[in-house]
Amino acid sequence: MKVLATYNIKGGVGKTSTAVNLAYLAAREGRRTLLWDLDPQAAATFLFRVRPRVKGGGRALVNRRRPIEAALKATDFENLALLPADFSYRNMDLELDDTKKRTRRLGQLLDSVSGEYDIVFLDCPPSVSLVSENVVAASDILLVPLIPATLSMRAFEQLTRFVSEVEGRRPEVVAFFSMADRRKRMHRDVIEAMRSNGSCVADTIVPALSVIEQMAQHRAPVPAFAPTSRAARCYEQLWAEVRPT
Length: 245
Ligand SMILES: Nc1ncnc2c1ncn2[C@@H]1O[C@H](COP(=O)(O)OP(=O)(O)O)[C@@H](O)[C@H]1O
Ligand SMILES: [Mg+2]
What we know:
Layout lengths: L1 E5 L8 H14 L4 E5 L5 H5 L9 H6 L10 E2 L5 E4 L8 H6 L7 H7 L7 E5 L6 H9 L2 E6 L3 H16 L6 E9 L4 H12 L4 E7 L2 H4 L1 H4 L3 H4 L4 H13 L3
Parallel strand pairs: 1-5, 1-6, 2-4, 2-5, 6-7, 7-8
Antiparallel strand pairs: 3-4
Helix pairs in contact: 1-12, 5-6
Bound molecules: adenosine-5'-diphosphate (ADP) and magnesium ion (MG).
């Protein structure tokens, strides 16, 4: 089982859109796929038309009073299960802090379903926290959407430093440009600078496209409601680049 997290310190950069679309594509090619929505705002849960509710809240999962299997929900799509977010996840840091091996608990919880899934997507809240440390320690790949702007590059440096300081397994960090507008000079410059400084950046660029925003109206992944759109092709190309073999 591989674990792929969409992560960035910043919010509003495309983490949830990416997790939802790539999880759909993984499931579509027959992989047994789980998406765990770790963000108390529950955007991924909403997009899969699931109620943002976990019995006993995040606490019951973290302290293992309830197995994560008990909280799983089916989606409208074959091979694709969802572990919903719940508003109680806003306190997940505190609950993790109370456990032994406080930076390894999410990984341990995922180990308990490793026979059931080929790939797990973690859709993360935008923060540097104990939850994020757990995500880093549990992941094989951190997929980092970047809006091409100077402050995004600073946040990416902070993220890289944070990842290097987390103990244990180091995930592969793969950045990609999200909501890019090639007509903007600054966007082109930042993309060039980032590509030449040795960071691992995917070739695929996901432009700013309104069909991606429309996911919230359709409450579905882009390739499910607009399979021939440019946005669907972009996510397919991104998935082909980052999918674990
Ligand atoms: N490539 C894109 N083009 C246009 N809008 C996008 C794109 N990616 C995300 N969005 C929109 O931007 C907002 C934030 O995206 P989201 O994926 O929720 O980011 P995050 O999870 O990082 O907060 C949402 O309204 C989403 O529909
Ligand atoms: Mg999000």
